Amino acid sequence: MEHSNKQHQNKLGNWIKTSITARMLMVGFLVIILLIPLSYINSLINERAYRQKDVVNEINDKWGNNVLVYGPVLKLPYKTYKETTIYNKETKTYSTETQTNIKYAYIFPENLNTNVSVDSKTLKRGNFESAVYTSKMNFSGDYIKPQLKLKDIKDEDIVWKKATIIIKTSNLKGIKNEVVITLNNSKYAFETNFNNSNNSYLNELESAFIKKEDLPINTIKNFDFSMTFNGSEQIEIIPIGKTTTMKIESNWADPSFMGNYLPNDETKEITTNGFKADWKVLHINRAFSQLHLNKIPDLNQFAFGTKFMVMVDEYQKSERSAKYGFLVIGLTFLIFFLIQTMSKISIHPFQYLMIGLALTMFYTLLVSISEHSNFLKAYLIAGISVIILITLYSKSILKTFKFPIFIGLSLSALYTFIYVIIQLENYALLVGSIGLFLILAIVMFVSRKIDWSNG
User: Fold this and answer.
1) Of 29, 123, 248, 336, which sits most exposed with the smallest number of CB within 10 A?
2) Where are the domains of the chain?
3) Where are its TM segments located (predicted)?
């Protein structure tokens, strides 16, 4: 009985050693097993990417967050009347009382011109960095007489002496100067309005009461004011002028223009020393009017401006690279399988496993080195290290020089191919598909002489 068991075990062992099918099953099983460390590597990359976001948010919170300015808006109170009928039980008669309420109209300027000068730099915390800036924003423009009659509001019901100016901003903490508006040659300071219940994302500044002679009752009134911010990542305004213009000049060499409106291509300049851009938005280009009743509308969706982003995409590239881990391991194992099958050299499953673990180490090296250097250097160091390690290990397995050299060259070509795909955006799918087609053609050509009948 024992003799028959030993014979059965020997037959099974010989089948595993000599059968092509058995080797294929073994290689496939190992590839699936190696997906486990690859999934942990992907989790590590995501964790480090989230850590980067947390650090950047911490830097921005201390320096100053993104800047969005919404204003200036003329806040004009007006009277409304409500008649109430009251019944007197003693006299058994009815009387009418008129109740007066104060409501507000919000008037946008006829013209709004914004000139922005931005001094940008990067702040670092450990291995992470964020784009921050100090911006000086100069606003100027004018108001015309508001057409409240179109809203059934009579001139005599307007409370001119209680009019104020409203400015909203997303970065109250980052303001670095006293905000004072000059209106018709008179100056009015702003204070924070903590009673703001509208549009909680933006903080509200409100001026003192405007003198009647400085209001656009009969003639156009000009205004100008400036705001200096410490901010980060982006700067935007909302085009509330009937005609709105904005000009930005900065030393940041890699801007990203954002929002509903793009700058004029004819005047836009981007160089290694910075950029210049200007916008012009007409009232016909947006879907809101110049006069609003009861509350200032939420118009954040109409904002436009510029992003100041550090182009740190090492984690994104590492993540894209790790997605090809299955392909790298599968093709490498396929090369060893073809060499083993065609040369009759025995390769133990443990040796396959060591090669697979070496391939997964590429990604941990890539992530860790890229945090201290750029992605290209990290990719080269990690790739060369893994290729040398596997090539030398292959020499001990395959006992010759030609196969290890072939494996080293194949891995070099494969890592180069993947790096090219990672760098591409629009043509990544096309180049990847062509490359995989060529790899498949080569494998089919090489394997055509294998005798699969021994499986």
Assistant:
1) 29
2) 14-54+314-454, 67-308
3) 20-41, 321-339, 351-369, 375-393, 405-422, 428-446
Q: Tally Cβ neighbours within 10 Å of residue 385.
A: 15
How many angstroms separate the CA atoms of 308 and 130, rounded?
9
**Plot region of 302 (φ>0 → left; ψ -120 to 50 → alpha; else → beta):** alpha
Alpha-carbon distance of 74 to 100, in angstroms, equals 22
Three-state DSSP state, 34: helix
Q: What is the CA radius of gyration of the chain?
A: 35
Per-residue tokens: 148 = 């409240």
Amino acid (1-letter code) at residue 344:
K
DSSP SS3 for 151: helix
Residue 165 pLDDT > 60? yes
Mean pLDDT of the chain: 81
Residue 216, amino acid: P
User: CA-to-CA distance for 298 and 318, rounded, in angstroms?
Assistant: 39
Tell me the pLDDT tens digit for each residue of 276-333.
999 999 989 888 889 998 888 889 899 999 988 765 566 677 777 777 777 788 888 7
Which run of H or E residues covers position 22? helix 20-63
Contact indicator for 48, 368 with CB cutoff of 8 Å: no
For residue 86, the cross-strand partners are 95
Whether domain 67-308 has CATH 3.10.50: the reply is no
Distance CA 295, CA 107 (A): 11
Which tens digits make up the pLDDT trace of 366-397? 888 877 777 788 889 988 998 899 888 888 88
Q: List Cβ neighbours of 29 (8 Å cut-off, separation of 6 or more).
A: none
How far is 308 from 273, CA to CA, in rounded Å?
14
